[in-house]
Structures are given as structure tokens and as C-alpha cells.
Design brief:
single chain; 267 residues; alpha/beta; TIM Barrel; three-stranded antiparallel sheet; globular; isomerase activity; BtpA
Length: 267
Amino acid sequence: MLDMLFPNLPEGRPPVIGMVHLAPLPDTPGYDGDLERVRRRALRDAEALAEGGVDALMLENFGDVPFYPGRVPAHVVAHMSVIAARVRQAFDLPLGINCLRNDALSALAIAHAAGGGFIRVNILTGARVTDQGLVQGQAHDLLRERERLRAHAVRILADVDVKHSTALGAARPLAEEVTDLIRRGLADGVIVSGGGTGLPADRGQVRAVKHAAGGTPVFIGSGVTPETAREYARLCDGLIVGTALKRAGSAGNAVDVRRVRELMAAL
């Protein structure tokens, strides 16, 4: 999978996926009424990530708090599709989509329409208690929709023990969660993150997930910084980076190309 998604990856280094966090879209409390500014900001962040040397981009409606637990309104899908298409046309990098909080079907539709190569699904199998309430897995619908669209080139990266959530009832052994995610949820890759946005992933958990995943790629999805990048790179197959690449290391700020270059140089 990694060779197909990242054909130009330098030998000996895991791929780095840089996050393009969208400013609030229409109908959200934070939206300022300037849709073109949202689009310009996304393109500027994508440009800084590409110039800094990341291997792929991932577009996410990060500013749309509070998030819907499942399907988002049609206008969110439309706006994200337009922005994704602009980013894909402007930069020759693989593009991923994450439609928060857990709208895997819309993420797939956006990726399929815009020429994206992968999506992130926070809860693909099982159920989690989140700040949006109970969120349940969508593998049964998502995989059938991918078949219906013949969108097999869009790969599914799915979180295990996803951030900002806790298990429903007694937690199962992590290895069982990973096995179900891959064998029953048919995830193409597994993501491990910390407890919240920007928080470091537990090294022991990453090792356990990597062992349980076998040949399925494992990505670290939070807490990657220039200081932690080399150590994390030894533990996994890919890195997803957002907060650490922003000005002043703040998730709400624009991407700082100098911070991107610093992280890539650390690898």
C-alpha cells in the first residue's frame, strides 16, 4: 500500500502526511462569513506543507466545532469537495480526506470526486464514547460504498483507540481491536494517536499495535514534532503531523514552512 500511495518516497524514511486544517465552514459557530478566505487559507497551508517537503496532504474540517457525530450536511461535503479539488490540482501530492467527527461515507465521496488517495476514519469498527456522544463504526456501509463507486484506489486509514474518546464498557485487549480493524473492518492502515489533538502517542502502545498489525502499515497520528520525529519513525510506517507544523505550535494557526522544514530535516 505504501508504495502505491507514496511512489516518490525516499528510501529509508517513512512518509509524512501534513494536515490542512480548514477554518470554520458555513453554519458553524466560528464561521466569519468569508468563504473565499477559508479557501485561500487552505491553499496557503497546503503550499507551505508542500514547499517544506511533506509526502502527502490531508484535508480536514478541523474548524467545524462542535462536530457532528455522523453524517455532515450536504453543504459541508460540497465546500470540502471544492477545496479538495483545488488543492489536488495545485499540488502533485497524494491527498487524503478526514470528515469529522466520523463521516466516512462523505470522506470517501470527497476523495473519489477530487482524486484523493486515502481517507481517515476515526471509528471504523466497534463503538466509542466521545464528546459527540456514542459513535459507532461504519465499516459495513463504507466498504460497500467503496465497492459501489469502484473507488478501490481510495485507501482507508483507521484509528485504533482514537483520541478524544474512551471505550464503551470494558476495554478489549489492544491486539484484538487491531485484528478486528484489519480483518473484519478491512482497514488498509492503522493510526495510533495520543489522548487528544497534538498529544504524544504512547510508545508502548505504538509497538503493540505494530506487532498486532503484521504487514498492515501503522501510522502515528498525533504528537509528532521535530524532537520526537526520529524516534517515532523507528516505531511505525508513517507519520501524520498537524499541530507541530503551525506557527507557535498552535492548532488554530497557519502552517509555518520553517517548522515543516525543521521536522523533515529531523528525519
